[in-house]
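re: ur msg from earlier - yeah i can do the fe (ii) ion complex, just paste it... oh wait u already did. ok heres what im feeding in:
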Amino acid sequence: MNTTHAIDPRLSSRYTSFDEVPVIDIGSLVDGSDIEKVAQEIGRTCATVGFFYIRNHGVPRSLIDAAYSQAQAFFNLPFEEKNRINITNSGPTLRGYIPTFAENVDPEKSRDFKECFDLGLDETHVAPFFGPNLMPERPVDFKPVLERYHSEMLLLARKLISAIALSLNLPADYFAKLQQHPITVQRLLHYPAQEGEVREEEIGIGAHTDYGFLTILAQDANGGLQVQNKEGEWISAPPIENTFVVNIGDLVQTFTNDLYKSTVHRVINTSGQARYSLPFFIDMDYDAVVDVLQNCTSEDNPARYTPYTSGQHKFRRYVNSYAHLKGTQVA
Ligand SMILES: O=C(O)CCC(=O)C(=O)O
Ligand SMILES: [Fe+2]
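and the outut:
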């Protein structure tokens, strides 16, 4: 990665050894040979970093490459064509195309210089965040390739989630029971090349935590993802071949009474190139209640959260970040 131009000093990150965002080999979780070992490692990392790379995840390289190709072909379409499937036309489904600056995850501080496309799998289930996708007419293989990619992500997420349950001394299917029809979003992201000095007021994606349970991210070779550590320092999470970046979201932090961290992160694309990434998000069922786990409380450490539903939390966070939802009443 070449840093081709000056960067606002407030945006600098400290490159540290990969140990800071650890790499976990999940081969024995994927093939079932030593689930417990991987679960313990994931648990330790969730309690310290909240972010980790996974290696030996079993997702074919050819499928990941195909998903990137479809994303690039889609974002290369004329704006008017993409804008026909704008998320604002999707009603409560909240799927489709999101132009630059239409979603700002840290709106007080920065505008997000990114465009997105969101799709889901469950097109018949009836609840907000579910329903028909808004699919583009081109590229022709967009729908089948991305649905396949999304399905693979869901399978992988379920394995990781069972490991998270085991790491908390819960039955492997503890969370799965609250994820019969989970809200999922497969997002495609395009961060256009930023010209001139990159300033904090306008970066790829502003500082935020993820709203859901778990995120699995494929990032291209251009870098730019930064993760905030306990001291408030920004640590780079550079691309590593044949890995995904996994992070836990707000729902896990609530379930675990802050034991596991929903870590703040952002993207600053100083590569001088267009950057693409493919984050997959999984929450719980829309109506599932997110409440502090009993085994994460004690007399000295009472519950720090009052229960809420998964859908309620996601919708609140959307209202804060989507221009077209500003001012919407939230239950
Ligand atoms: O593009 C990335 O590397 C991260 C994106 C992200 O944080 C998000 O979509 O929530
Ligand atoms: Fe994120």
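cool cool. The first helix runs from residue 27 to 30. ping me if u need the other ligands too
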